[in-house]
Design goal:
Length: 92
């Protein structure tokens, strides 16, 4: 596993997820207040976009740092790094 200092984007990912959490809380409130479906759908879309952006940033960070580090480590084979790359791209 890569060193924690390589994950510079984790703070940004957490910030995006907190934003998504706020949107989701807003959706729950809107539903309990019987707000218009169009407004609720718009907020749900914002939740989806925020989570997708966080996931994309996390995966790109992993590819940029962790896999690059794995390839430069003699103990890690290219086959292992390629396997990990294939696995994480399933989540894109």
């Amino acid at each position: 596993m890569a060193a924690p200092d390589l994950h510079l984007s984790h703070d940004a990912v957490a910030k995006r997820l907190k934003r998504a959490h706020g949107h989701l809380q807003n959706v729950i409130t809107m539903l309990s207040e019987d707000r218009a479906c169009l407004d609720v759908a718009q907020q749900l879309h914002a939740v989806e976009r925020a989570i997708a952006a966080a996931k994309k940033q996390l995966i790109h960070d992993h590819i940029d740092h962790c896999l690059d580090s794995a390839l430069s480590t003699p103990a890690t084979s290219s086959r292992q790094a390629l396997g990990e790359f294939k696995t994480i791209t399933k989540y894109l």
